[in-house]
Write a structure and sequence with these properties.
Helix content is about 20%, strand content about 35%. The chain is an alpha+beta fold and about 675 residues long.
Length: about 675
């Protein structure tokens, strides 16, 4: 087994440890028993012993020889570097046998397995390095583990179902010109959709402050492959669709979806036809959607309904195969109008024939925010600005809709993210949605019992150490499934916007724009049976240096490009929140293929507790309600124990004074003889 990347990094380390090498000479003389114990193993490693014979006698010249030997003896060099860095007490041949084999045991204690070493571990029962070392030497090995992680620049994470750290790079910047000379603007990215192997993103010019230099329009931009640049696919210009009386309206792509039609308006089977449908806002008191013609790279106008005395727009688009008549149906959720059904008919513009009247008329000022199919039944969610909402169920065949749940106390937020998730209580699916800053489940098998699954503000307040006032989660109607490790569990991604408490920001400043966080955070919801967890992630970390202003993750999409192997995300967003701003739309690419994994999927080491605030200044609080250990220990990145205390009461959080800790990253261990759980925090 060879490790060219690691070997390239080791010559510098070998040269950098003359003091350690000098110490090794003394230690070799001081440990005759250790050297004698290695005699048998030395015989078993003749190749390594031959290479190491000169070095064991003459350590001072070892560094000069290592540069050449790195190319020829990669495995031996890994062991030698480990020995040099940690004052090894055994000769080089023994180090290869013992340290490498003992590394898995070290990793289990420290929750990390370093790249390079883990690939060469041959763990055999009853052969562990801890069997022959005293406590001081065990601590020395722990320091070794932390040192290797730093020298290889490995980010560490406690085990979780979502244990990879992606590399995020910005791919779209508002106010630029594409390769064909077209302006690409926008204050918000509202939609990112995969369609026929390409990506399409819709933007919005809402609250654009510099109207003199930014045309009143919104665009749909396209990305043809992972190495290409975004380019304008089509532009919707304000003056082309509005009258003078409509002044003040904004241009935005409210909804965009790609659907595969396999049957026509009569239920006849057809060659599958995939259509991309977009709804770009208010037009002359008519609701107009556009359907892309992929053969001509153009967009066809499709009008829904007749003229009305109010402006209205399509905020969501859904799709469902009617089980009774076999017809593929598309649904448009229209503000101030209702839900209108369309069917596939090539004789009509865009190949879609819309009904002349809605299947259901929703209350005035109510926006239909999302559709989903749950247990082969179509559902829709709508809400009003007054803080009320509704969830409806459709009956196939008749097209009748029934109200199944009424929502109240929405604090002006819409119902968001309607989707189907596995039923934690048994077979089938239940509905998931976000309302009033909380994740809810609605159970069709239990009289639509509504359960609050997760409070976003409460959790974020604990994790971030600052009061979060409100959260708008899962902007669009479905949260994407993203299972890059092929786990047996169900993994969903939930983008969101959060607003700090203004008084809390005075005492604990955080990067924000008018109180809204700017790190581009999202949650990873993982479900395995009845076990449901939410893990907080972010696209950029603006502490301690502000890197970008990513207010609100509105849309997440899995890359359709074959080279990305389903392990790359595209995320976009910004929310103006009725605040004038300029060219803030953003899209980032998150590459999970090149991430460093902890390698702990088989050891089942978990966090099991929450540490907050994180970062911390004076104190940390450890919520151990889900922990199962008997002792808490805190280590710095050199492996030095800086805190230790027994756990006496699991019902109460533990507060620890860290004011005297040096700035940096610390590892928190909760453990007993049979349980090991790990977390981390940053001391500012």
């Amino acid at each position: 087994m060879t490790f060219p990347t690691e070997n390239a990094a080791f010559p510098t380390e070998n040269v950098a440890f003359p003091t350690e090498n000098a110490a090794c000479a003394t230690e070799n003389a001081a440990f005759p028993t250790e050297n004698a114990a290695c005699a048998t193993e030395n015989a078993a490693f003749s190749t390594e012993n031959a290479a190491c014979a000169t070095e064991n006698v003459a350590f001072p010249t070892e560094n000069a020889a290592c540069a050449t030997e790195n190319a020829a003896f990669p495995t031996e060099n890994v062991a030698r570097t480990i020995a040099n860095a940690t004052h090894a007490t055994v000769n080089m041949a023994c180090a290869t046998a013992k340290i490498t084999k003992g590394y898995a045991e070290v990793a289990k204690r420290s929750a990390f397995i370093p790249i390079g070493v883990c690939a060469s571990v041959e763990l055999k029962e009853k052969i562990t390095i801890f069997g022959v070392l005293n406590n001081e030497e065990v601590n020395m090995k722990k320091k070794l583990l932390f040192f290797l992680l730093l020298s290889l620049h490995i980010s560490f994470y406690s085990f979780h179902c979502f244990s990879q750290s992606p590399v995020w790079t910005r791919t779209y910047r508002s106010g630029t010109i594409d390769s064909s000379g077209h302006f690409m603007g926008g204050n918000e990215i509202t939609q990112i959709v995969a369609h026929k192997g390409k990506l399409f993103a819709g933007n919005s010019d809402w609250e654009e402050s510099d109207t003199a230099n930014n045309p009143p329009e919104c665009e749909i931009v396209r990305l043809d492959n992972s190495t290409d640049q975004w380019q304008v696919d089509t532009t919707f210009h304000y003056l082309s669709y509005h009258t003078a009386a409509d002044s003040g309206f904004d241009m935005n792509v409210n909804a965009m979806k790609s659907f595969v039609f396999t049957s026509d308006y009569a239920g006849n089977s057809i060659q599958p036809d995939t259509l991309l449908i977009a709804a770009p806002g208010n037009y002359l008191h008519k609701n107009i959607v556009y359907i892309r013609n992929d053969a001509t790279n153009s967009w066809t106008k499709s009008i829904i309904g007749g003229a009305l005395n109010m402006s209205f727009s399509c905020r969501s688009i859904g799709f469902h195969l009617d089980a009774v008549n076999g017809v593929c149906c598309v649904f448009a959720g229209i503000e101030n109008y209702g839900i209108v059904k369309g069917v596939y008919n090539p004789s009509f513009p865009g190949k879609i024939h819309w009904d002349s009247i809605p299947e259901i008329v929703t209350p005035s000022d109510e926006r239909v925010m999302g559709f989903t199919v749950c247990n082969n039944t179509l559902y829709a969610a709508s809400s009003q600005s007054k803080g009320t909402g509704h969830i409806y169920e459709r009956t196939d065949g008749t097209g009748k809709w029934a109200l199944i749940d009424s929502l109240a106390n929405g604090d002006g937020q819409d119902v968001r993210g309607l989707t189907a998730v596995p039923n934690p209580a048994g077979t089938g699916e239940v509905l998931w949605y976000c309302w009033d800053s909380k994740a809810h489940r609605l159970d069709p098998f239990n009289a639509y019992d509504d359960t609050i699954e997760y409070s976003f503000p409460d959790s974020l307040t604990k994790q971030l150490g600052i009061r979060v006032r409100s959260v708008l989660a899962a902007y669009n109607d479905n949260i994407p499934v993203f299972n890059i490790q092929n786990d047996s569990g169900d993994i969903r991604l939930i983008g969101f916007e959060m607003h700090y408490d203004s008084a809390a920001l005075v005492h604990s400043p955080r990067p924000n724009f008018h109180g809204y966080a700017t790190d581009g955070r999202y949650f990873v919801r993982t479900q395995s049976g009845t076990d449901i967890t939410y893990q907080l992630e972010y696209i950029v970390n603006n502490i301690p240096v502000i890197k970008d202003t990513l207010l609100s993750v509105r849309t997440l999409c899995i890359s359709p490009f074959a080279c990305d192997s389903g392990k790359v995300l595209y995320g976009g967003g910004y929310d103006c929140d009725a605040i004038l701003t300029n060219r803030k739309a953003w899209i980032y690419r998150g590459d999970f293929r090149t991430s460093i994994t902890t390698g702990l999927e088989e050891t089942r080491i978990s966090s099991g507790f929450i540490v907050y605030p994180n970062p911390a200044t004076n104190t940390i609080t450890i919520d151990i309600s889900k922990a199962a250990g008997s002792n808490i220990e805190i280590y710095d990145l050199l492996g030095e124990k800086v805190y230790s205390s027994p756990i006496t009461n699991y019902r109460l959080p533990i507060t620890i004074n860290v004011a005297d800790f040096s700035s940096g990253v610390y590892v928190v261990e909760v453990k007993s003889e049979k349980v090991y759980q790990v977390g981390k925090f940053v001391k500012e």
